[in-house]
Amino acid sequence: MSLFKVDRASASTKSFDAPGIYSVEIIKSESSLTTKGEDTIKLLFRGADGSVASDNFLNRESVWWRVNALLAACPFVEIPEGQELDFSKAKIFQEFLGQFVGAKLKIKLEEESWIKEDTKEERKTLKIKKYLPETNPF
C-alpha cells in the first residue's frame, strides 16, 4: 500500500476560466468503462496556477487519432515511432495513456455551448480542442 503524502497544492479543483492556450502538466489518468463496456481513460491536466481541465479518451479505433495528437504534443514521452499496440488486450490502453502522467504540453481550450434538454437553458463549458507541444518542458 502506498503512503499518503500531504500536498495542499494538488487539492485545487479550480477550472480554467477563459478560452485560450495554456501550459499544463498531465497529473492523473483514470480508467472506467462506458455503458457499452468500452474502455475510457480520463486524463487530468493542471495549469501553473492550479486550474484543472480533463479530457476523455475512448478506446475505439475511429478516435485513436486523438491519441496520436496527444503523442505529437508530447515528444518527450518515449514511445517509438511505428510501435504497434493491441488495445483490445486488457489494460493495454490504460497503461499506454498512463505513461503520459507527468508530461508537459499546451492545451487549447474553446468554449462550447449546448441546450439542456429538461430546462431548455443554454449551458457553456470549456473543452480541450487541441494539444500543442510545450516549447520548453523543463
Please, what is the oligomeric state?
single chain
Shape: globular
Strand content: 35-45%
> What's the SSE pattern?
EEEHHEE
Instruction: Output the strand order for the largest sheet.
Output: 3-2-1-4-5
Q: How many H/I helices?
A: 2
Largest sheet: 5 strands, antiparallel
- The strand count comes to 5
Spatial gap, N to C terminus? 31 Å
Low-pLDDT sequence parts? none
- Chain-averaged pLDDT: 89
Helicity, as a percent range: 10-25%
Q: How would you classify the helix and strand content by structural class? A: mainly beta
Radius of gyration: 16 Å
Give short descriptive properties of this protein.
single chain, 138 residues, 39% strand, mainly beta
3D structure, described in words:
- The chain has two helices and five strands; from the N terminus they run E-E-E-H-H-E-E.
- The protein is mostly beta strands and about 140 residues long.
- A five-stranded antiparallel β-sheet has the order 3-2-1-4-5.
Short description:
The chain has helices at residues 65-73, 92-98, and strands at residues 20-33, 39-47, 52-58, 104-115, 122-133. The protein has 138 residues and is mainly beta.
Topology:
Layout: E1 20-33, E2 39-47, E3 52-58, H1 65-73, H2 92-98, E4 104-115, E5 122-133
